[in-house]
Amino acid sequence: MESVLYPVAALLHGAVPQWLALPSLTLTLPHAVYWAGLAFFPLVAMVLVRRAARAPHRRISAPIAWMFWFWGGFVGLHRFYLKSGRAGLVFLLLFVLLLMGNDYSSDARNDRSLFDNELRIAEFNITQRQKDVDRQTEGAEERLAKAIEEHDAVRNRAEAASLTEDEWRAFVGAVFWLIMLLLLLDAWRLRHLVRQAEAREAGLADSSDIDILQRDDVTDERSLISSPVIRTIEKISDWSGTFVAYWIVLAVFVYYYEVIARYVFNSPTNWAHEAMFLMFGAQYLLSGAATLRDGKHVRVDVVYARFSVRTRAWIDIVTSLAFFIFVVTLIVTGFFFAMDAVEVMEVSFTEWAIQYWPIKFAIMIGGILILLQGVAGLMRNVIFLSRSRAD
């Protein structure tokens, strides 16, 4: 492979301007941008999904195509989305070549560093042998000649390693800017590509809409009971669950950026993992109400499922006491945790130093949402028992 790439790399070596080399990414995500992204990204995603639901005949979305171009253009995701598989494979192949070049470049850099260290040792040995010659030590001239010979051999290897590194850096830079050129061309033609994809999709049957949070069929007749308060609470639970569901998509983008920054630009981030770690923690808390509404929390109901609906309603009412004690404790504790974090302006023990108080407030907010959904469930059981008694 190196013999094939050598003519191209040698041609580029020394002829490529410094600004044309592969750039490095040094972005550290500002805290305000991170928190704003958590707040507004799900809202924008909801709007796009609802727009698509109102126009089900349009299976290709220009905003989504632009999103894939911006976030996944390096691997041709926008082309695959627009059903241009061959062009997408071109992007994918170039991306693989770029990764391969980075890998070889990294190995060459390690070799050069090793030979540079050996060269410094060889230079030190020459200095010491020269001192022996100056002192007219017996056999010093032979040792000096041998040290010079070893120095020349190490220098040749160091120069060869440096040339190999420059060749691979030139190759990586060429592939990178080729990808960038193709991305700019696709950005210029993206509206036309979207229209082409829409034309290809026009003859296909419309697919059924998919709800983000599909609820399983519930056979329990208590699920048929409703009231204005119950409907309002469950709408809040549904909205909160849908909101945090879109955070998963945000994680895909952030980790994609981390992969590109780490393996393409050799610039791993100091914030991607921590940002998603905090986001998943908040998601776990804020999605509790929607999970409770759908009955998806882990529970052992081998015996419970054998009782009648009326008996289950009584059991739920009695055991709700423990539920409310736990949730109220969660809310109160979360409030004090959050206020303590605000008071001392607590930040993480990392280089990014992100604030902790928004996540700690999520404990309290998640507890309030779960409490409301628990109240809705209690009301449903009480209404069910009162109606069944009247019957």
Please provide a written account of the structure:
The protein has 391 residues and is mostly helical. It contains twelve helices and no strands. It has helices at 2-12, 31-54, 62-72, 77-81, 85-134, 140-201, 228-245, 247-263, 272-286, 288-293, 309-344, 357-390. The protein is elongated. Residues 1-16 and 205-218 have low confidence and may be disordered.
Query: Which sequence of SSEs, written as H and E, runs from N to C?
Result: HHHHHHHHHHHH
Number of E strands: 0
Helicity, as a percent range = over 70%
- Number of H- or I-type helical stretches: 12
Q: Uncertain spans, ≥5 residues at pLDDT below 50?
A: 1-16, 205-218
Short account of what is shown:
This protein is mostly helical and 391 residues long. Helices cover 74% and strands 0% of the residues.
Helices and strands in order:
Elements: H1 2-12, H2 31-54, H3 62-72, H4 77-81, H5 85-134, H6 140-201, H7 228-245, H8 247-263, H9 272-286, H10 288-293, H11 309-344, H12 357-390
